[in-house]
Amino acid sequence: MERPASRQSRKKVVAVVGGGLVGALNACFFAKRGFDVELFESREDIRRAKIVKGRSINLALSHRGRQALKHVGLEEKIVAQGIPMHARMIHSLNGKQSPIPYGRKGQYILSVDRANLNKELLTAAETYPNTKMNFDHKLQDCNAETGLMTFVRLDGSKEQVKAHLIVGCDGAFSAIRKQFLRRSRFDYSQTYIPHGYMELTMLPINGEFAMKPNYLHIWPRNTFMMIALPNLDKTFTCTLFMPFEDFEKITTGDEVIEFFQKYFPDTIPLIGADTLRRDYFRLPAQAMVSVKCNPYHIGDTCVLMGDAAHAVVPFYGQGMNAGFEDCIVFDEIMDQFNEDFSAVLPEYTRVRVPDDHAIADLAMYNYIEMRAHVNSKWFLFRKYVDNILYFFMPKTIIPLYTMVTFTRTRYHEAVKRWHWQNKVINRGLLLSAVAALLGGSYLLIKNPPDINKLIVSAEKMWDRLVALRTL
Ligand code: FAD
Ligand code: EGU
């Protein structure tokens, strides 16, 4: 039997390098289109691994990420394994908890387990007959123009593989991106922020969640911040963000407790002093890096997606969501240009770079703002104002986080609109102030108050007060 010609021409080999969240999802996207997909991951298969080490245990999944999962038929399954968070719960220093909803009833984000999500995505990719998974394959070198790659195995052996298209999904320290750096006219910047993060586990108490489960718990303390997301096993993973220099100051168990007593006193009985002391010294604080680059492609043979293209600091909960949206955007352009890589790749760079740079900037901006002056009162106030304006003018004033989290408004458009809205709000405030001033003056001029009347009424008031007292 002969295959139709179109099917034949599709038999191009796509090598996805990196089997993390974005790589595994991308394998599904390319497999669905009928390409011969080869996925290469440096680590062993996490589905068989006993210990899964790596960054952050759980992640906030929102609209953009969900839409991407929907494209490959995985949305329902992943959503069912996530915990909805309808609101933030702000913890004040005095232990008071205040919820602030994310939006209307149906608007919530999900806390998902990173390892579980990764496993589901790998399994989904594997179910396509045209995908091949290669674990224990660490990309050592590649030629982005010819598509030739060299991998090293744990036993030291090397393997060479050639592909029509290399898709670099190998994370923030991408080996594929190294090839871009050697070229002319490649823009690149990376910034390490002074903060590190550390994860602490809050175990269930009497078999139940130690805090209310359907919230993203936040302890905003200016330079220090803690965030907790619920897990399916009824634990919470608390992530402590703090400058490295402060992490280094705390060297004994007693100092840990002292520090928590001062800034997060309500969490000590919930985490438990012993667990706290143990967890704190289990791993050193992890660094956070922001990476921006341009372009995302080389010729018609190599393209970057996910953290490899744009690592963002986690202060908008968008890193994975943006990486997942990369996959949809690429897929849409593949439709537009009939899978012609020589047209698709430049277009992907043209369309996607401004948006990824916008979310990288937003995340960094939010980091700076939170660090500078966000305590629990300020956080509550700002979110209240956002929500109130949105409630009364839902068509005009949409909070920035709403556009970012609950829509697919292009990130750079969301930023533009946010600037415009701020202008409108400021003008509105100024106008109201001027109107009040002018209106007040006008009324006073039009009806000048009779001084005698004012005194008389003051006398009357006095009489009434005296009358009240003698009653
Ligand atoms: P990675 O997940 O890093 O995967 C890269 C893969 O490539 C890995 O499996 C790695 O082993 C493999 N690899 C690396 N080098 C090679 C090589 N040379 N050869 C072969 N394979 C290689 N995002 C959200 O959307 N919501 C959140 O709430 C959120 N919270 C976060 C909290 C923290 C503390 C941090 C640090 C990040 C958070 N993020 C969040 C961001 C999110 O973790 C990343 O954006 C996401 O993991 C990116 O996926 P990726 O597949 O591009 O990269
Ligand atoms: C940080 C670490 C609250 C998971 C940004 C909000 C985050 C997450 C916020 C982490 C914050 C900060 C938003 C979401 C989310 C808020 C958001 C941050 C998930 C502006 C596992 N952030 N995060 N903004 O609005 O849009 O609630 O580690 F504290 S989810 Cl820093 Cl929506």
TrEMBL record:
GO function terms (MF aspect): FAD binding; kynurenine 3-monooxygenase activity
Essential cofactor(s): FAD
Membrane topology field: Multi-pass membrane protein
One GO term of the biological process aspect: quinolinate biosynthetic process
Segments passing through the bilayer: 388-407, 428-445
Substrates-to-products reaction catalysed: L-kynurenine + NADPH + O2 + H(+) = 3-hydroxy-L-kynurenine + NADP(+) + H2O
Domain of life of the source: Eukaryota
Coiled-coil residues: none
Location in the cell: Mitochondrion outer membrane
Pathway membership, UniProt: Cofactor biosynthesis; NAD(+) biosynthesis; quinolinate from L-kynurenine: step 1/3
SUPFAM superfamilies given in the database record: FAD/NAD(P)-binding domain
Keyword Signal tagged: no
The keyword Mitochondrion is assigned to this record: yes
Alphabetical keyword list: FAD, Flavoprotein, Membrane, Mitochondrion, Mitochondrion outer membrane, Monooxygenase, NADP, Oxidoreductase, Pyridine nucleotide biosynthesis, Transmembrane, Transmembrane helix
EC numbers: 1.14.13.9
CC annotations in GO: mitochondrial outer membrane
InterPro entries: FAD-bd (IPR002938), FAD/NAD-bd_sf (IPR036188), Kynurenine_monooxygenase (IPR027545)
Domain FAD-binding: start-end pairs: 14-327
Similarity remark: Belongs to the aromatic-ring hydroxylase family. KMO subfamily.
Described function: Catalyzes the hydroxylation of L-kynurenine (L-Kyn) to form 3-hydroxy-L-kynurenine (L-3OHKyn). Required for synthesis of quinolinic acid, a neurotoxic NMDA receptor antagonist and potential endogenous inhibitor of NMDA receptor signaling in axonal targeting, synaptogenesis and apoptosis during brain development. Quinolinic acid may also affect NMDA receptor signaling in pancreatic beta cells, osteoblasts, myocardial cells, and the gastrointestinal tract.
UniProt-recorded name of the protein: Kynurenine 3-monooxygenase
Organism encoding this protein: Neolamprologus brichardi
